[in-house]
Amino acid sequence: MSKFPSWSGVFPALTTPFHQDLSIDYPTLEKHLEVLIDSGVEGFVMHGSLGENLALSWDEKFEILRVAKRVAAGKIPVLSGVAECSTMHAVEYTRKCEAQGVDGIMLMPAMVYKADNDEALAHYRTVAKHTSMPILIYNNPIAYHVDLTPPMLEMLCNESDNFIAIKESAGDVRRITDIINHMGDRLAIFSGVDDLALESVFLGAVGWVAGIGLAFPYENQKLWDLMMAKKWDEARELYRWYTPLLHLDVGLKFVQNIKMATQATGYCPEWVRLPRLSLSGADRARVEKVIADGLAARPKI
Question: Fold for domain 9-243?
């Protein structure tokens, strides 16, 4: 078993709020983090895909982490996504996170490069070797073209205690059962796809790296609490209202979708950095309708 304490619960993957000139809006970020803590989240994931990691400078990333650590105040862990284009840079960035007192990392494959199994394993092994922090493995073969299969996960976990959890975003909930059958409870499994959260928890996930919950933090936490209490009828009812919104977490424009939702609910503006563009035309109208319909039918919790 890992030497680290376990992680569980809702760990929202934060967006990075920008002013219209695309400088970072730190006061808005701080207020949003405070709301999320109030809603009951159990951790922060900064600089994931939703955080537009690769559009930020390292100086910006570390200032964001300082803000998150200040708001968290030791009550909940603060994780940083590690999304670098080389293993060397991933190691260097991870070391800087550890020196700054970050509580753990969410480790992605090396960006851009489509690794084979041996190269993917080498990347994860090397980063783990150079840190004492716990690691949330991020498996998203749809976006990053690298699939960490259960046998590969078992190899990593046999070699390092640092790997304590996985954000499973393969888009196939059968993978959760395969991981559990292969290695028991060695890894805490987090749902990484919003519109598979209930199914994932039913099959054994103990955490949720949430996206649209940034816009609906209290409803998101209510759903989580119902699932943890195994109140499946109530959870299904809330999930059916929530699902059209949860679908916004999936697809090419998921960052823009979720930022539009956080703007609609008053938490964060929708501005995104290039190469992303804000939604327009039919795409924008479709997302606006999903958000408006969700707000119109928003349940009392």
Answer: TIM Barrel (3.20.20)
